[in-house]
Amino acid sequence: MHDQPDQVISVSTGEPGASGSNAGKPRILFVAEAVTLAHVARPAVLAQALNREEYDIFFATDPRYNPLFPELSGFRYDIWSISSAEFLNALAKGSPVYRKATLVRYVEDDLNLIDRVRPDLIVGDFRLSLSVSARLKQIPYATIANAYWSVYSNNDYTVPQLPMTRFLGIPLSQLLFDLTRPAAFALHCIPLNSVRRRYGLKSLGFDLRSIYTDADEVLLADMPDYFPIAADAMHHRYIGPVPWSPASRLPSWWGDIDTTKPVIYVSLGSSGRVDLLPNVLEALAQLPVTVIATTAGRTELDAVPDNAMVSEYIPGDMASELAALVICNGGSLTTYQAILNGTPVLGVVSNLDQHLNMSYLSRAGVGAVLRSENAGVATVRKAVERLLNDPGYEAAVEKAMQSGQTCTSGVQFRKFVREILGDAG
Hints:
Blueprint: E1 27-32, H1 37-48, E2 56-61, E3 76-78, H2 84-93, H3 100-117, E4 121-125, H4 130-136, E5 141-145, H5 163-168, H6 170-198, H7 208-213, E6 217-220, E7 236-238, E8 263-267, H8 277-285, E9 290-294, E10 308-311, H9 316-322, E11 325-328, H10 332-340, E12 345-349, H11 352-363, E13 367-371, H12 377-389, H13 391-405, H14 409-421
Parallel strand pairs: 1-2, 1-4, 2-3, 4-5, 5-6, 6-7, 8-9, 8-11, 9-10, 11-12, 12-13
Helix pairs in contact: 3-4, 3-6, 8-12, 9-10
């Protein structure tokens, strides 16, 4: 059980960020839940958008992604998150991600951290326990989220990949999902509501979106034109896409990429069905394309087709700019990399978050959805051919790119911080 790991990773014993700290500067604490890379990358980008001459910055996350963020080493704290595998396994089963005991431990770790840092503002990304700990300490708290998790969103809920989709098929599973989703969402709300009652806070109700976005301010990392919410939404503001790419060296083969043929960038990310990578590569091996792919350190391939080059990580912005098509898990981190570089997307989706994200993008025409259960060699090849040969996708993503370029998250986030804390300058 994840409540009692063999080695407890809690707040680090050092004091990163304390050296040279000016007590007169506002102190901002970022807390990232490291179950997927996106939840660490977004607050990391925003933390670096602030001027450290004006603010004292503290960044807390599980150390599993530390090698990808060396720039945070001077002001980073270690704080425990459940494993990515455990998180993804819960999603695959449709089970609640967190147990009550886990969230209680999270809250206690948060409170310990807050007491040490003494922040004036807390910014979280999917750290659900901050719904309790930040309120107990009466510190302004903002959460970074996607618009489709807002209670003010109007979503079409496609049944994600669940055990029943394999046995019952998609049409019947969708019918059952529509009937049972409110009860399933309510079940997922029980652990945090129980923890809130333990600490004397009222329930957030039984809409999962309330659980995922409870904060004093919700910072929406999306483009308002493509991910709308109700006009009367309170305590929500769009900051725009938060682009991130690893500061890793280019692979040795980068200069040998054959760009005389369409380049396909494949990245199933930290939460995609990485076991499908061989299928995708085999499908692309049958097409006149050049393939550049990443494993994110999650798998090793027995064989690589002649038209493909593979590395653990590739700077996603550079790969997306070079590519004619991006194949990913449909999550916001990689899809925005593609959009901001004017590249259509094929989302090979499995969990609900990916389905929600791609439902908006596919309706806008910037990409297409392929369910992970259906991602066989033939279906992947057919989808790729359709995306490469239909100029409508390219036109739609060009429009989306222009919209995305007007939403500069760093500027919007700095504006938000000034409104909350005043002009530090």
